[in-house]
Specification:
With 126 residues, the protein is α+β, with helices and mostly antiparallel strands. The chain has a single domain, classed as Potassium Channel Kv1.1, Chain A, CATH 3.30.710. The protein has six helices and four strands. It has a four-stranded mixed beta sheet. The radius of gyration is 15 Å and the shape is globular. The mean pLDDT is 90. This is BTB/POZ protein. It holds the Pfam family BTB.
């Protein structure tokens, strides 16, 4: 007999994101006074996104004290939190965003090349 506990796995990944345990990526999202530090795990980011696989390769990666440093001043911390939640948990609530915000999020997600989220946002807009 075989059992599957997908929701338990998703919940555990969400805990990883919210508790910041064992992170090895520091993301600087936003700029100036709106900039925030976010924490993530390179294994999860690389598994879910070709963009991050390339970003964390030897030729692109910036490291400090064993942690990858990833700077995205053109992406608001709020958008990056939405994207990270999708990467970690496969969850997104686009109803909390206004039309122009959804379009801005689509532009960011396209830059990060997260195809499943691009499709999700496009379907939401249609």
């Amino acid at each position: 007999m075989s059992y599957e506990y997908y929701q338990e796995v998703v919940d555990d990944f969400e805990k990883l994101l919210t508790t910041e345990i064992g992170y090895d990526v520091i993301i600087y999202a936003g700029e100036n006074e709106s900039m925030k530090e976010l924490y993530a795990h390179s294994n999860i980011l690389c598994t879910r996104s070709q963009y991050f696989r390339t970003a964390f390769s030897n030729k692109w990666a910036e490291k400090n004290d064993g942690k990858f440093i990833f700077k995205k001043p053109n992406v608001s911390p709020e958008f990056f939190k939405v994207i990270l939640r999708f990467i970690y948990c496969g969850k997104i609530d686009l109803t909390r965003l206004q039309g122009p915000e959804v379009l801005k999020l689509l532009i960011v997600v396209d830059e990060l090349n997260i195809q499943s989220l691009i499709s999700c946002i496009q379907n939401h807009l249609i």
